Amino acid sequence: MPRRWIPILMALSTAACATATARPARPDTPALAKERPPVEVARARPPEPVPPPARPAATRADDGPLTAKIDAATPAGRSAALRLTEEGRLKLARGETDRAIELLERSISVDARVPYTYFFLAKAHAEAGHRELAHRFLDRAQQKLAGEPYWRSEVDGLRGKLLSEEGKSAAAEAAYRRALEAWPGNRAAAEALTASSRRGKESP
User: Fold this and answer.
1) What's the start-to-end Cα distance of the chain, in Å?
2) d(CA 149, CA 151)
3) What is the pTM of this model?
4) Does the structure show a pLDDT above 50 at 68?
5) Which of 113, 134, 140, 164 has the fewest CB atoms within 10 Å, i.e. the most exposed one?
6) Is 201 domain-assigned?
7) CA–CA gap between residue 154 and residue 190 (Å, rounded)
């Protein structure tokens, strides 16, 4: 055998031995773990809405003269507005609707913060047949008298009367019920609700 083949044969023999004795290399990447189903996170239920506290009913009537609300600490403008409102209320009770509206509008121009003026203006406009204005002033009165149960009852009672005259019996009954909840002594609302219920039973 020619000598030049000897180194080549020795190299091949060494390579074959190294391949046979070498351990197989471990894969660098670990085996993929089995996918687990996603864990469903329990969601906390939102808290139940807390109902607003029931408004207290009036324990007594507040139907005395509005001038009785004037004392030494009452500002001059409010005192004048209360006097004008009381005068307008008396004119309205006597059937002098136009004069009552005039006085009540003057009261608002003096002090627009007096809440009772808006109720009597609504009542005056209702008696004058100005229904849209009556509802508008009732809305203002409802906002301003929300914290006074007796007057809130008066507002809802007048609202029920207007709605009943407009043929909206269901809405009228709801208004009368609110009036009685605020002031159980509201006789006009109680009588109107009884009459409405009687008519409902008599209708076919």
Assistant:
1) 130
2) 6
3) 0.72
4) yes
5) 113
6) yes
7) 12
